[in-house]
């Protein structure tokens, strides 16, 4: 057989495109996919067996089996829609026009991704013109705010359009979506990823950040590098041991509102002066991850140049955060201990945020270091990370009492004990002054590094999970909580509460299961004691009926809900009527205020 070389033009064209690395909705980035498939058809030639991935390969002229590119094309997506018809038993609208601007409120999302050999693309259609209650007013609108295309070849990936990204723990960059909060701070621009050597990963990006149905004037750019030494020097490391070094940089160029007129303190309060604000802001992050058998450790430090903005009262002091985390995990036992100190680290792509855009334009993310609560009363007082700064500590222990032991019994027993403690910083405040007295345009007050200020939040959680038989298991949960309502919500003082929860799951037969909850919250502050109950009956594989009630014995308020859920293949329908209390909906230390609502509900979810 006669051999011929592959034309250079064919190589260049085939290197432009590649398979998809991730879904458009995914916050994380998967490892790089491999290069060309050995069955790929290039002109009328095909790869010599055993020579895949080498650009200098030679090719046979024998005609292989016909390659059907169209059969490799795949479409995936999801539809998510939720309706609320606000109504009460008297036939009158609840709330006011500022909350319910229409008789029917709706949030709808349609995501579509096309995966094909060598190229992938996707987008999202969103209808939130009359959104559900509690979202920022800027959230309302409709259109296609998110679209992208991705290509990769061998060790690199290129994305153009809208994308999400996170560097390290997100201390200087976390671009993500959380629909329950109304957060979607995607960047529109470009991103390049490359792994030039084993264990070495590099990312560079740039663009403008979404602010609901607009994009901020600021330009963002950044780069991240991680080096996993145990991958690069695999022979030098024993199994279950490794070191990863990481470094990140994020820059912001903000031409908007570079000079702001503000009121000058003193005998003439009407006198105005102007602040000259920096055009460019830089943030840096360095981290070390260490794995030693069953132990994992993380040390991370981030800093940000002076970034005067509305949230820090236009302070010119630098920001920084230190995060330490360690965990141990072995069969039947795990332990986590972590600490964080932050100061002036809120980072947004827009300096001045109005009341209509409070949850928009975040560039970074400060983890809350609190347990995510799933029971209704335990989640009544969630903590929101404070932008000025805080000390945060968290510990978590889990243990499995083995089968056949006195505490394990026939099926074993799981117990969990966790605690959080969060305080403010010990600010260098002059006598008679508070943080509210900060002077715009100054360095304001610093805080000694090791000193801890007043309590913001503390909790102690205990959970026991026990299986009594093949058909019944139960959970006992206790939470002690101290919640500084004045810090988190602006007023209210310290709320001390005790929450007890009992949950049972009874498998009646192969297709029928009953789950029930009983909850009690005791407090002498805020609105007093609460009682909650839930019954959920499932008829596999299609039906589930849920009835719940939450009663405030301190104020006499009652909140109830009756829901029916029907599932058929990839379709899920939920419908019912209910009254929901006002309060905060939080995720990861970011919170959205939800007003009291009542009415008919309908949701539909479909994936394909």
- Share of residues in helices: under 10%
Regions with little confidence, pLDDT below 50 for 5+ residues = 1-61, 89-98
- β-strand percent reads over 45%
How many helices? The count is 3
Gap from first CA to last CA: 47 Å
Strand tally, please? Answer: 36
Tertiary shape? globular
- What structural class results from the helix and strand content? mainly beta
Largest sheet features:
24 strands, antiparallel, barrel
Compute the CA-based radius of gyration: 28 Å
Give the integer mean of the pLDDT values.
85
Describe the 3D structure.
The protein is mainly β. Helices cover 3% and strands 53% of the residues. It has 3 helices and 36 strands. The chain has helices spanning 8-14, 229-232, 485-489, and strands at residues 3-5, 46-47, 58-60, 74-86, 105-116, 119-128, 141-153, 156-163, 165-166, 174-175, 177-178, 183-184, 187-197, 200-211, 214-215, 219-228, 241-253, 259-263, 272-276, 280-292, 295-304, 319-330, 333-343, 389-401, 413-425, 452-467, 472-484, 494-507, 512-523, 530-539, 543-552, 557-568, 571-580, 583-587, 590-594, 597-607.
What's the layout of helices and strands?
Blueprint: E1 3-5, H1 8-14, E2 46-47, E3 58-60, E4 74-86, E5 105-116, E6 119-128, E7 141-153, E8 156-163, E9 165-166, E10 174-175, E11 177-178, E12 183-184, E13 187-197, E14 200-211, E15 214-215, E16 219-228, H2 229-232, E17 241-253, E18 259-263, E19 272-276, E20 280-292, E21 295-304, E22 319-330, E23 333-343, E24 389-401, E25 413-425, E26 452-467, E27 472-484, H3 485-489, E28 494-507, E29 512-523, E30 530-539, E31 543-552, E32 557-568, E33 571-580, E34 583-587, E35 590-594, E36 597-607
Antiparallel strand pairs: 1-3, 2-3, 4-5, 4-36, 5-6, 6-7, 7-8, 8-13, 9-10, 11-12, 13-14, 14-15, 14-16, 16-17, 17-20, 18-19, 20-21, 21-22, 22-23, 23-24, 24-25, 25-26, 26-27, 27-28, 28-29, 29-30, 30-31, 31-32, 32-33, 33-36, 34-35
